[in-house]
Amino acid sequence: MDSVARRFYFVFGRLSAFLFLLFFIVTATFAQQKIADSLLQQLKAHSQKDTSYVRLLNQLSMAYAPFDNKAGMAYANQALLLSKSLSSSHALATSYLTQARVYEFGSKPRNAITAAMLALNEFKRSNNDTSGLVDCYLKLSANYYNTANYITALDYVNKALLLAQQTGDKKRVAACYNTLGSCYTLLADYPKASAFYYKELKLADSLQNKSMIAKTTGNLGVVNYYLKNYSASLKYYNRCLRVLEELDDQVWVGAALNNIGGVYLDTKDYQKAIDYNQRALAINLEVKSKKGEANDLNDMGVAYGHLGRYAEAFACLNRAISLYDTIGSKNNSSATLGHLSDLYLAAPGDVLRTQGIDPAKRLDKALAVQLKAVSLALEVRDLNTQSDQWKKLSHIYEQQKNYSAALNSYRNYAKLTDSIRNDKKREEITRLNIQYDYDKKAAVLESENQKKQAELSRQKVIKNASIIVGIVLLFSATLSFVFYSRRKDAREKQKEAELKAQVSETEMKVLRAQLNPHFIFNSLNSIGDYIARHDKETADLYLVRFAKLMRLILENSEHETISLADDLKALELYIQLEALRLGNKFLYYIEVDEDIDPEQTLVPPMLLQPFVENSIWHGISPKNGDGIIHIKVQKNGGMIEYTVQDNGVGRVRSAELKKNKVKQGRRSFGIKVIQSRINIINAAKQTDAKVELTDLDEGTKVSIKLPHDLKF
């Protein structure tokens, strides 16, 4: 059986290098406990429940957050309640920001985004506290970064950078450079990432800030690691390590040691990789960093596997998986399960027996583990992890001679690989969705000698795009009408109820295929305006997002229902385009209850769009000052409930402003279409779906209840 084992592939890889992010710096657990104890004494001595008491509660919350997140959140909530009772906008803003930080430490980025949005709104009321605004933008950027939404993260950090530069706040400017470098690192734009890190390093040197110097040199090590420039990577990592050891910052020392071990793992010096990860493991055990401990064990398991020390590899990988499961790190758990699956294929029979595995059943065991790895990768929606796990699953099926399953898995791998290759930069947004060769024209745009021709070319592309979109929409509508007519003729003699159901289904397809021509026209005008003003970067961003939205709408129009995740993705693109048109006049946030699985929940496509459009153009656009749109998805009995709430001028005032304008007709038509779709859903599914509009003191609230349909 050992000879059989050696025929299997043995492909191991490591997890990503650890980026040193300034917006997420912690000290060792014992140091945090000492700080917390001191703050508790100060809190007991301060009897008056005033803003100083709020400040102490927030400081205490941050002291506990890294090692006792539950206690940290309890103090943050106390600070929030007291701030509300004191009617202090600044105290309330600071408390919301603290809550966002605690959520971030607790690995709940979406909750952190919601809290940071609320903090931002309060800081704007509090005489536009510039430092507070910068911190909010940085916190929003950090948590969009943590959800892999790097484009939105870049939008917010650029806002933070502009304000920080205006006030000459060097420390916050450096934090912005760090975030920009980190985003571009994970977007694989390494030249831009390096440029921002070097700017940060220059500021860090001028401020003589050793902590900042350590993090910046560490990140330069990460960039060179991804470029496979291992000698430069080691140089920066070792400089980072020396400074961290001077600071006695044990948490980050562990991270630096793990990164150095990763370089030796990639360069196949497996014993050195083990040595550095063992040092990192000892530190992470001391400071009780479960994620750091798991990362070290994963890399050690990989190295032991390459050295043929299979028993030690099994021990490390199994411990790593257990830790990842404990902290809920599904993406890392998926990757490590993939390594474990490889190990079952490669280990000799006698080692498998010590693991309680019959060597004759190694393929069955590897398959079970690999299926779990694929399942977790699908849950977290990480395309790179999914691609790796589908490829490994295909290999196992091939060894089992299950060629049909092997081919299907390989197709999934190939599809994801192609998607990653085409969409990796700019958050997987492609420039080729309307079937013209934009990339070749973009190359021409780089030439300084052809700028005038480039502008004309861009204008032509925009016109072609509008024509193609119009043709596609007309063709889709025509096909839908033909399909409806044929089905109607074929089933003319069937029961009236069946006929009505079929007509309703076809009408839904026609409605879904319709795009607001005003929106298309205005979007193309906006692109043209940006080009005319030589704002190439904004025009490029707008065009990319517009093309992506067109593609999603056309794809989604083919389906009666789509996943909630896909629907919210299209809705967010629409909101981002409208925000650009309004000069970012409003903020928005989308909140999905934790007990709803967006990937498995099915909803009618673009049902919310007309209500969001109304919020933007009839509620917030005529409002003096900035607006907020809050979109929430939650369970309500056996139904799923959307709510769209804005702080605009409200329906009554909007009607007064718009009563003599043509746009009012569009608003009524949009709501009528949605009500028609709701009626069709009720008729088809015998349910009680409905729309409710509520006038608020400030703004409007829309609630939509739908049946909670799942894929399975």
UniProtKB/TrEMBL annotation:
Q: Which UniProt keywords apply?
A: Coiled coil, Membrane, TPR repeat, Transmembrane, Transmembrane helix
Query: Could you identify this protein by its name?
Result: Tetratricopeptide repeat protein
The keyword Membrane belongs to this UniProt entry's keyword annotation: yes
GO cellular-component terms in the record? Answer: membrane
Domain (Signal transduction histidine kinase internal region) spans 507-586
Keyword flag Cell membrane: no
Where would you find the membrane-spanning parts of this chain?
Answer: 465-485
GO MF terms held by the record: phosphorelay sensor kinase activity
Annotated Pfam families: His_kinase (PF06580), TPR_12 (PF13424), TPR_8 (PF13181)
Q: Which residues form a coiled coil?
A: 487-514
> Which spans of this chain does UniProt mark as TPR repeats?
254-287
InterPro entries in the record, alphabetically? Answer: Bact_2-comp_sensor_kinase (IPR050640), HATPase_C_sf (IPR036890), Sig_transdc_His_kin_internal (IPR010559), TPR-like_helical_dom_sf (IPR011990), TPR_rpt (IPR019734)
